[in-house]
Amino acid sequence: MGHREVTEAAVKPKRPWHVRLRRKVRLDYLKILRTKGAPAQVARGVGYGIFVELLFFATIGVSIVLMYPLNKWGRGHMTASWVGFFFMKAFAWVFILPSIVCGAFILGTEVSMDLVRNTVNVLGFENGLIKIIVTWFKGATQDPNNISALKDMGSFIYAWIVGGVVVGAVVGAVGGFACWAGLSKYQAHRRERREQILRGE
To answer: Is the pLDDT assigned to residue 169 strictly greater than 80?
Structure first.
């Protein structure tokens, strides 16, 4: 009887799930930071995530399939890639127009801000893209404005995708480099602090 009481008292109660999750995330985070070569791996992952996010809207989300192969073959960190992906969501809208302009320049097409605005207005607000496409497939008579808007949409969507590749690669490289520099500095600081402790300073 006494042995049972001692055993039950020695077993610690299980921590709440959110506490266990936070501790696991923190442990994984510290393992990443302390691993040799971690800054470069994490930085590559962040860069890949930023790159994919800048293609995400233009490709209607299809580019998300690039996340795994980029990290697998490019030796990036998958978790860091998701962090870069979701972080970039807050700023992706800033790069939409630059991507379209860059892509139009590369493709040699004329894509003005007025063209984009008018196309979005016709397809998104006046008639609705889904309704127009359904009418198209049914073979019904189309409004010439809708047909023109669909063609214009195709032109700037292509420009957006092509430009997104270039802009995403540049922004991803800059973000990855900033991440690498920050993590390298952090690791150097931890090593220096550890050496000071060992020296008794």
So the answer is: yes
